[in-house]
Amino acid sequence: MASLFDINLFALFGQLLVGLINGSFYALLSLGLAIIFGLLKIINFAQGAMYMLGAFVALLALKFMGVNYWFALILVPLTVGLVGVLMERFLIRPIANEDHLYSLLLTFGLALIIQGSFTHMFGSSGLSYAVPEALKGGTKLPFMYLPNYRAWIIIVSVIVCAGTWWMIEKTNLGAYLRAGTENPQLMQAFGINVPLIVTLTFGFGVALAGFAGVMAAPVYSVSPDMGSNILIVVFAIVVIGGMGSIGGAIITGLGMGVVEGLTKYFYPEASNTVIFLVMVIVLLLKPAGLFGKEA
Amino acid sequence: MKKTNKTVLSAVVSGVIAATMACGAQAATDGQVKLGVLADMGGTYADICGKGCVTATKMAIEDFGGNVLDKPIEIVSADSQLKPDIASAIARKWVEDQGVDAIGGLVSSAVSGAVSKVNADTKNITLISGSASNTFTTKTCNPYNVHWTYNVVALANGTVKPMVQAGKKKWFFITADYSFGHALEGMASKVINENGGEVLGHVRAPLGTTDFSSYILQAQASGADVVALANAGNDTVNALKAASEFGLTEQMDVAGLLVFTPNAQAMDPASAGGMRLTSGFYWDMDKETRDWSKRFEQRHGEIPSMIHAGVYSVTTHYLNAVKAAGTDESDVVMKKMKEMKPNDFFARNATLRPDGRMVHDMLYVEIKKQEERKDKNDIYKIIKVISGDEAYSPMQPQCNFS
Amino acid sequence: MNNMKINLFLLALALIAPTVLYPVFLAKVLCFALFACAFNLLLGFAGLLSFGHAAFLGTGGYVTGYLMVNSGLTPELAIIVGTLAGALLGAVFGKLAVKREGIYFAMVTLALAQLVFFFYLQAPFTNGEDGLQGVPRGALFGLIDLSDNLVMYYFVLTIFIAGYWLINRTVHSPFGQVLKAIRENEDRATSLGYDVNQYKWLAFVISAALAALAGSTKTLVFELASLTDVHWHMSGEVILMTLVGGVGTIFGPVLGAGFIVTMQNYLSGGELGNYIHIIMGAVFVVCVLSFRSGIVGQLMKFKRNNF
Fold it and tell me: What are the φ and ψ backbone dihedral angles of B150, each rounded to 5 degrees?
C-alpha cells in the first residue's frame, strides 16, 4: 500500500494536518514544561496531571455551574494556575535548594495523588465534553474533511505559543523574569520580589497545561489517565528542543506532531515510539537539543 | 567475638531446619471455600470489572446463604492493575499461601491467561468472566478453566455476520495493537470471508490511543462499507468520537465489536445511536434481569455490565456445584459444574461444555438514539436473541475434559 | 567487625524468614533489592542517573524466559545467558550514553529504553501484552528441582548474596574509588590521567549485567516475563526504591526495595486497593518533604557533579 508511487497524496496531506493538530497540543504542553524548567530549573512531572485537571475543571464547571466553553477558556487556566501557585509556594519552595531530583520526585508523587483521586471519584471510562456550538461542523478541503474545532486548535495554540514566546523573550516583564531566575541575589538587591516571580512563573507554566486541557476536552475523552499518557512524550519533546529553550519547545512540539502523523501513515504501531528514536538521534548528534545552547 | 559468630551461626542453622519443616504446602481441599476476585480497580476497565465485580461476587455469596459445606464462604479481592505479572503473583499467593479455591473476575486476556497458568499448575479453578479471548477454551485450554459471559467468537458471529449478510461486504479494521485486538480482528475477518465479504485493510492503533484521527482518515480513504472497531473500553469511545468528528459516520457504518454498557453510556448518542452490537447481557431485558440489576445498582451505584452479571452467575454456579459435590476438591467440583445446567437471570438456555466454555443465549442489540432514551440507563434495544450454538464455535476435541 | 556481625545477623534473618513469610514474596523482594543495588551502583557511586534501567531488567527476564521455554537449558545457564545479554545491551547503551551528563544522560537512557520496550512489544516471541507465560523453573544443574517455592527462595538468596557481594567488592575496589573520585569531581579525575568515560562505561556495564541478573531470576520465580519489566514506570520505580532507601549507601536500596514491594503487596489486596496510587504518591511527597535526612548528604554530593 505504501510503495513510493502508490502513496495516496491526499491521505498524506490529511495525516500531515492531523499531525499538526496533535503538534499544537504538544507545543502548548511542552511550552509550559520548558518555561518551568528553563527559568526555574524545576522538573515538573505533574504537568500531565495539570493538563488532566484542566479538562476536568472545564467539565465540572459546565456540569455544576453552567460555565460554558468560552468562559472555561479563561476560568480554567486561572484555576489550574492557582493550584500551581499553591503547589509551588507550599510544596516545592521548601525543597527549592535541594537537588532537582527532589522536585521531580515530589511532582511525580503529586501526579500520582491527583490522578489516583480522580480515578477514585470519576472512574476511568472517559467522560465527554461537547464541542461548542459555534465550532461545530467542518470544512471540506480537497484532501479531507477538516472539523472546525480542529482548525481552531491550531490557530489558538499558535497564537498562545507565539504570545508567550514574545512575552518572555521580548518584553520588559520577560527580561525581569529571566534575570530574576538567572541571578536572584542581584535582582533581589534591585528591589525585585524574586520569590513572587518564581511562584507566578510556575503558576503560568502550569496554567498553560490547564489551558491545553480545556482545548483537549471536546476532542479527546476526559479521563484521569489522559495526562500520564502524554507526559513522557512531552518530556521527550522538551529535551529534543533543548531544555529551557522556549522557542525550541514550540517548534519541536509542532514538528514532532507532524513526524508522528507521518509514522501513523507508514507504520502506525511505531507511532508512540518514533519520538524516542528522534530523541536518541538528536541527543547523540546535538547533545543540547536542537535549539539548546551548549553548556 | 568468635562466640557471637557461633551463636549467630547456630541460629542460622536452626532457622534453616525450621524453615524446611514448615514447608509442607497446604492443600486447598480443606472444606473451606475461599474465593478470590481479581479485578481492575483503577485502570481502563475499572468500570467494567472493578469494584463491581467484587460486589457481584459478594451478592452471589449472600444470596447463596453465606455458607457452604457448613463453613462460611470467604472472599478476598485484589487489583490486577491489568498486568499479567501482578496477576500471576497474586494468584500464586492466594492459592499457595491463603488456600483460595477459585479465582474469578478476571478482566483482560493477559491477566486471565496468567492466572489460568498458575491455577492449572496448582489445580485450582479459574472462573473467567471478563476476558474476550477464546484461547482459554482452545489453544491454552486446561481442565480448570471456566469461561463465562462472552468471547471473541460470539462477538464476531453476533455482530459481523448479520451485517455481511445484509450486503455490507467491504470492511476495514481499526484494531487495538495487542493480543485481544488481534484475536478479535482475526475472528471477525474469518466470519467476513466465510460470508462472501472482503477485508480491505486494517490499521493497528497502540492500546490507550487517545487521538484516533489519523486512523479514521486511513479508514475513510479505504473505501470500505464498514469500519470495524476491534478494541474495547476507552479506545472504542475515542475512536467513535473521532469518527463522528471527521464525518466518517455519515459515509460508512461503524461497528463496535466489543462495547460494554459504561462505554455505550459515554458515547455521544448522535453518533452511536443505531450502532448494533453483541452483548452477553442487558439489564433491562425482562423482569428477572431488572430485579437483579436494581439490587446491584443500589449497592454499586451504576447499572451492571455483562461482566458484573456474569461474575454473579458463575459464582452462584460454582457454589451450587460445591454444595452438590459435597467437597471443594477441584476435579470433583469441575465435574459437577459441567454436569449441572447453569440457570439464572443471566444464563439462559445455558450449558457448561466439557472444554469449560459456557454457552448461552447472546443478545444482538442496537444503541438507542437520543430521542428513544427515557434516562441515562436506557441505552439498548434488543434486536434479537442469538442462540448459544449459533454464537459460539464448536468444542475442539483436544479440549474435551469430560 | 561490627559490620560482620550485622551482616551475619541479616543473613540469619534471611534464612529463617520463609518460616514466617511467603517465600515467593521474599524472593520478589530479593530480586528487586538486587535490581535497586545494581541501579545504585551507577547513581550512588558513579553519579549517573539512568532512566532506562528497566531495559536491562526486562532483557534478562525475556532472554532467560525464552531459553527456559524453548531451549531446554538448565536454569543456571539460562540465567547466565540472560545476564550476558543484559551486559551486552549495557555495553552498547553505555557507549552511547556516558558521553552525556546529568539530565541528558538520563534522557538518552530513557529514549534507548523506550526503543527496547517497542522491540519487546512487537517481537513475536514475547507475546506482547500477554507476556511470556508458563516459563518452567527447571532443575538446578539438572538435579535440584526448583518448583518448590522454598528451594527457589534459597536459590534466589544465593544469587542475591553473590550479586550483593560483587557490588560491595566493586565499590571498595580501586575501581570503585576512581568512580567515586569521578562522581566528586570529574575534571580532577580527568586531569589525574583517568579515562573517565571508560570508567563510567564499565560501571554501566556491571550495573546493566546485575540488573539483568535480577530480571532473569525474577522470571524464574514468577514463571513469567512481561512488559511491566521493560516499561518506563519500572525505571522510575527503581529510582524511587533507591531514593527511599538511601542513594549511595550499600544497604539502602535493599531497604528501599523491601519497603516499596511490601507496600505494593499490602495495598494490592484488601480494602485499600483503590487507593494504591494515592498512597504511593503520598509516601513520596512525605518522603521528599520531611524524610530526606538520611539521604541528603549523598544527594548533595551527587548534585555538585551533575547539575
Answer: -170, 175
Please indicate, yes or no, if residue C161 is contained in any of the structural domains. Answer: yes
Top residue of C42, C107, C272 to mutate, by most chain A CBs within 10 Å, is C107
Identify whether C212 is part of a domain.
Answer: yes
Residue corresponding to grid cell 522510575: C236
pLDDT tens digit string along B297-352?
999 989 999 999 999 999 999 999 999 999 989 999 999 999 999 989 999 999 99
Contact between residue C74 and residue C63 where contact means Cβ atoms under 8 Å apart: no
Q: Are C276 and B90 in contact (CB under 8 A)?
A: no
Q: Which among B392, B319, B326 has a CA at the least distance from the CA of B355?
A: B392
Cell 547456630 belongs to residue = B10
**Over chain A (295 residues), what is each successive 10-residue block's mean pLDDT?**
53 85 92 87 89 94 89 93 93 82 84 88 76 84 83 93 90 81 77 83 94 90 83 89 87 93 84 88 85 68
Write down the residue that cell numbers 527580561 correspond to: A175
**What CATH superfamily classification does B34-150+285-360 receive?**
Response regulator (3.40.50.2300)
Domain count, chain C: 1
Find out whether B132 and B155 touch, Cβ atoms under 8 Å. Answer: yes
Residue C116 domain flag:
yes
Alpha-helical segments (H) within A190-273: 194-216, 226-241, 246-266
Instruction: Return the CA Rg of chain C.
Output: 19
Beta bridge partners of C94: none
Q: Which helix (H) or strand (E) holds A4?
A: none
Residue B13 has pLDDT above 80, yes or no: no
- Distance of alpha carbon A43 from alpha carbon A234, whole angstroms: 12
CB-closest option in B8, B23, B114 to C150: B23
* Residue C297, pLDDT score: 43
Structure-block grid coordinates of residue A162: 507565539
CATH number, domain B153-279+364-389, options 3.40.640.10, 3.40.50.2300, 3.40.630.30, 3.40.190.80: 3.40.50.2300
How far apart are alpha carbons C161 and A87 in whole angstroms? 43
Question: Is residue C45 in some structural domain?
Answer: yes
Nearest beta carbon to residue B88 from set C1, C222, C276: C222
Residue C117 to residues A175, A277, C120, C239, Cα–Cα distance (Å): 42, 12, 5, 18
Percent of chain C, pLDDT > 90? 30
Among residues B399, B320, B387, the alpha carbon closest in space to that of B145 is found at B399
B125-128 and B74-79 as β-strands: parallel, antiparallel, unpaired? unpaired
Candidate from B359-363, B380-384, C193-197, C284-288 with smallest mean pLDDT: C284-288
Cα gap C306→C262, rounded to integer Å: 32
3-state secondary structure C249-301: CCCHHHHHHHHHHHHHHHHHECHHHHHHHHHHHHHHHHHHHHCCHHHHHHHHH
Q: Name residue A13's amino acid.
A: F
- B5: nearest CB among C8, C16, C222: C8
Please, what CATH class does the domain formed by A13-285 belong to?
mainly alpha
ipTM above 0.95, yes or no: no
Distance between CA atoms of A37 and A48, rounded to whole angstroms? Answer: 15
pLDDT tens column, C248-277: 778 888 888 988 888 877 776 655 666 777
- CATH assignment at residue C166: 1.10.3470
CB distance B42–A144 less than 8 Å? no
With cut-offs at 50, 70 and 90, classify the pLDDT of residue C301.
low
Mean pLDDT of chain B, nearest integer: 87
Q: Using a CB-CB distance cutoff of 8 angstroms, which residues of chain C are in contact with residue A231? A: none
Contact A257, A19 (CB under 8 A): yes
Task: Report the C-alpha gap between A193 and C212 in whole angstroms.
Answer: 51
Which uninterrupted H or E stretch holds B332?
Answer: helix B330-339
Contact C107 A276 (CB under 8 A): no
